[in-house]
Amino acid sequence: MAVADVPTNAESSAPPLPTPKQPLYESSTQFKHWRFSPEQLAKSRRELNHAAVESLKKLFDDEEPGSTSAVQFLTPEEERALVVYYARVIGSMCVRIGLSEEVEATATSYLKRFYLKNTVMDWHPMNVTITILFLATKTSNMPISLDYYVSKLPSGKTEAADVLALEFLVAQSLNFEFAVWHAHRALWGIVLDVQR
Predict the structure, then answer these.
(1) For position 151, which CATH number holds?
(2) Where is each Cyclin N-terminal domain found (predicted)?
């Protein structure tokens, strides 16, 4: 054995350096894929809106040339206002059905995430909202029966097939990333720490 191969006392007695622990949130899909600056959000909304408007103009012009001059398309701000409105609708639906705050917060997050990849000109927010809320009951581990859910919806005209029709599209738009880290989770942790 060569002298260089023999460990010195300092090397053999020093414990290995611990690897720094990554906070759980920083390893989550929410942290990795769903955090955006206000500028990134505005840019994404503008690009989606522009693409939807161009697609609709083409459809209108193919159907009847020159017809798009009479059509006023939604702006990104108007689309955002509709999403905010339907986020409030989720809250009132949760009260009506008797769902928890966690389900409401999850559904609201899903709605906002969905419309970061889609526009209200492509998918009507009411149809998306009823699907998202039902999906949120399942992913929040508070499932309810589809028949019960449909019976509690305000219109009375919604059928079970309407709720399920967009479920796969919603899941795809969310990249099948259903975990949502809510702010109240951190607050609950603080409450538990204070109680100790």
Answers:
(1) 1.10.472.10
(2) 78-177
Number of domains in the chain: 1
31-64: per-residue pLDDT in tens?
555 566 788 878 888 988 998 888 888 887 777 7
- pLDDT on residue 4: 57
Tell me the pTM. 0.76
The answer to whether position 20 is within a domain reads: no
Three-state secondary-structure class, residue 112: helix
- Residue 8 covered by a domain: no
Q: Would you tell me how many other CB atoms lie within 10 Å of the CB of residue 170?
A: 19
Give the residue numbers spanning the domain of 148: 39-52+74-179
> Is residue 114 within 8 Å of 157, Cβ to Cβ?
no
